[in-house]
Prior knowledge:
The chain is an alpha+beta fold. It has helices spanning 21-30, 44-48, and strands at 2-3, 8-10, 65-71, 77-82, 87-92, 99-100, 104-106. It has one domain (8-106): Mannose-Binding Protein A, subunit A (Mannose-Binding Protein A, Chain A).
Amino acid sequence: MTDFQTLLMWAMKDNGQDVTWAQANAYCQNLRIENHSDWRLPRPQELMTIQGSGAPRGKIQSTGISWTAVKGDQPGSAIAYSFATGKDFSVATQTSQFYRALCVRGGK
């Protein structure tokens, strides 16, 4: 899905299984959709642009909490985003249960 306000193109679904932050990064870097290979993890503010009522808007499928590209304040942590609450928070990068990679490309 392309958001023409932000110029972001979103993968239509996340990776569908538990992943650590490093695995989520690798998943997006290796993703190939419609001849595009420049996928990445989004920043928290980018995820906020697709926040719907407890889930991403459009037809984007999210099956868990989304990792972001941003490292947390503490060593070994990163920021994750929950569509259920509409909030981001810091979590250990080795955490994987319920954490997913929802990839994006482009932007302003």
